[in-house]
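User: Predict the complex.
Assistant: Input components as received:
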Amino acid sequence: MRPALALRLGLWYGASFLVSAIALSVFTYVLLARALAAQDHNVLESMLARYTAEFQRGGLVGLQHLIAADEGEGRHERLLVRVVDARTEIVYFSEPPGWGGFDLSVLDRPLARDSEWTTIAHPPDGSVLEVGTRRIGGGVTIQVGRSSHVRDDLLANFRARSLEVMLLTALIAAAGGLVLTYVGLAPLRALESTVRSILATGRFDARVATTGTRDPLDELGSLVNDMLGRIQTLLAGMRGALDNVAHDLRTPLTRFRNVAEAALVSGDPAAVRDGLAHALEEADRVNATLTALMDISEAETGTMRLALGAVSLREVADEAVALYADEAEEKGVALRPAIDPAVHVHGDPTRLRQVLANLIENAVKYTPAGGRVDVEAEARGGAVTASVRDTGPGIEAEDLPFVWDRLYRGDASRSARGVGLGLSLVKAIVEAHGGTVAVDSTPGRGSVFSLTLPAARP
Ligand code: ADP
């Protein structure tokens, strides 16, 4: 697998992780800044109330003592304190060192209410001075202010730490993303290497390594394995069929050659004529085998042209029976068609005759003298089931599933003529009609081959 995909996925994963982490810390930062500002405001408010109360009780001297005591104890953060008398003269002013940058002139403005809050910004360092003003009796006002320096430092510290944490998070996210995608894509890599090895060797026995967990990628691997198994079976089947065809064609062709050679060598006109007749027979046999093979594959692949219509089953059965009537009589086998003339199926008459002829041929061929072959049909629902029943040797249960296979021939039938294509053709044609085939057999008692086809629409 090209590393680009894993890298891309890993980076996407890492990036989304990082973006979430950044969003989280921005949110935390905003909450923290608000909480600190609110806390500063509360402290300021309580100090203003405290100093106001002291001023009312002990006057300016009392207030000075309290401020000095507070500073001495270091209990309170130092504050800006201003007392202005009725003539707007500043009678007391104290400001912590280093706060000189704020423009305090706005504090001199006359008050609109008894209590007011003012914020004074100091743009060069972004700090803010918050001042609470309270008017008390006699036109005196007390002002207590607090700079945002302390919380600004705290927040700056928070930002610097967050940046470090983000850098670390970015590294962890990228590494984690890469590891996760590498591990997550392992089934795809296994799939890729299997497909590659099949392409390289042309052998379908390679399988995708699966873990048995039921996650979708592992499931895909198992599905591909099932598919490979299916392809392998099909290929083996096709190879086997091809070998069989080659073998089955070689026998008549060798006979053909031998007959022709013997006739040629003998020089006797009668022997030549005999040989030619023989050769013709063998050629016909080869031709029939090839035609059957081609018909089967046409029917199986759906390219067989069917002239569909309402077909009288009785008529096609009679025509098929007529082909084997002489043979049956010679053998002493009773061949009895018994089909209701009213039974009609939807199909191609030529192909259906071929189907019945194949079944009747087998029945007559395999049934010994004294036996009987019945050709029957029964309409039920929208379907018609036709059957060819014989009192022949029957088929062993273990052979039954294979009788429909191409070129399959039961051991007992080796002596009888045939190449093992008849039943495959029957099945392929019936299925091309949308029907089904079935066989039921009891060894020693006989067999019933049946086919179910759609009934003709009235
Ligand atoms: P073939 O008859 O040329 O051998 P088929 O495809 O028609 O080939 O049949 C396949 C096999 O099924 C036969 O070789 C035979 O073993 C078995 N078979 C078919 N029809 C019958 C039957 N009526 N009775 C017994 N065995 C049968």
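The pocket of adenosine-5'-diphosphate is lined by residues 362-363, 366, 390, 392-393, 395, 403, 408-410, 413, 418-424, 447 (CB under 6 Å).
Let me know if you want any component modeled separately.
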